[in-house]
Amino acid sequence: MAFELSFEFFPPKTAEGEAKLLETRQQLSQHQPKFFSVTFGAGGSTRDRTMDTVLAIQRDGVEAAPHISGISSSREDILTMLQVYQSHGIRRLVVLRGDMPSGEVSASDFAHASDLVSFIRQQTGDAFHIEVAAYPETHPEAKSAALDMQHFKQKIDAGANGAITQYFYNADAYFQFVEQCQAMGVEVPIVPGIMPIYNYTQLARFSSVCGAEIPRWLSLRLQDYAEDPASLRALGLQVVSQLCQRLIDGGAPGLHFYTLNQANLISQIIGNLTIQNN
Ligand SMILES: Cc1cc2nc3c(=O)[nH]c(=O)nc-3n(C[C@H](O)[C@H](O)[C@H](O)COP(=O)(O)OP(=O)(O)OC[C@H]3O[C@@H](n4cnc5c(N)ncnc54)[C@H](O)[C@@H]3O)c2cc1C
To answer: Is 11's C-beta closer than 6 angstroms to any atom of ligand 1?
Structure first.
């Protein structure tokens, strides 16, 4: 299978954000991505904007993959979205349980992502290629790493075709995770999710919520550059490029970049990589 790049965006809120995303998409298209994906805001807060962004991408000729989360959706909501997506030729979904905005409680028909994967398969057969989320460093709510692995396998058994991981900065966590999956008979491609380093405060905040570990040495060095964004960016570029190259050399089937709707740093990272298509 050819090595595949993909890029994740959030749906912009303003006309200015839309114009910026269009520029970002144009720049990242040069890397011949397999697809662009668009997130679904916490609790379904961006349902319409996600759909609009996905349809705009698809119209421009790049495969677009909406994220769909079950946590705040009813069966009817999901069916309506699937119908719209199918009628516009969308063939790939990133299917999640999702998170609620802090403080809000979910009233959902889908307690876990595996329930939503089963429902989509039941309703639409093989119409969609389904990606799910994977956590090489374990999902933050999991009772144990072993249980989290079993829950991941349930999503694949329910009909997912592939997985994209939460970001991480320790390549061994990914390789160990893939090995464990293989030992459990999970054979779908597991694509590492890559978070470029733009800003330490923002990264530390995200990481503490989603359970991604910033290694101590890296965290300390990034903090040293709190007042020196050029040096922070250079260190981040070097560290993330090396991480990506290790993942490629170790057999990762692709890379999925969390872009935060920005292209320059990612283009620089990709420019540093040697990618061999087998
Ligand atoms: C690539 C990627 C893209 C993402 N995109 C979005 C997005 O667009 N919008 C958004 O809101 N969030 C997004 N997220 C975040 C994600 O929604 C959260 O991490 C969320 O907390 C879990 O979603 P999940 O699909 O992994 O859930 P699940 O797979 O359901 O797992 C969530 C937790 O429940 C546990 N669990 C699963 N099944 C069972 C079971 N049967 N019994 C008991 N426990 C169980 C798991 O071990 C885990 O701890 C994304 C994450 C990734 C990695």
So the answer is: no
CA of 164, closest atom in ligand 1: 1
Neighbours of 245 (CB within 10 A): 16
> Which of 171, 194, 190 shows the shortest CA–CA distance to 181?
190
| Cβ(58) – ligand 1 distance below 6 Å | no
Give CA–CA dist 173/178, Å, rounded.
9
- Cβ–ligand 1 distance for 53 under 6 Å, the answer no
Q: Which residues, other chains included, contact 204 with Cβ-Cβ below 8 Å and sequence gap of 6+?
A: 214, 219
Which 3 state secondary structure label does DSSP give 102? coil
Query: Among 44-58, 172-186, 242-256, 261-275, whose mean pLDDT is lowest?
Result: 44-58
CB 256 within 8 A of CB 164: yes
Q: What is the per-residue DSSP string for 165-214?
A: EEE-S-HHHHHHHHHHHHHTT--S-EEEEE---S-HHHHHHHHHHHTPPP
Mean local confidence (pLDDT), 230-237: 97
Look up 63 and say whether it is catalytic.
no
pLDDT of residue 87 exceeding 70: yes
Distance of alpha carbon 39 from alpha carbon 50, whole angstroms: 7
What is the token pair recorded at 185?
């008979």
pLDDT tens digits, 253-268: 999 999 999 999 999 9
**Dihedral pair phi/psi, residue 8, rounded to 5°:** -110, 135
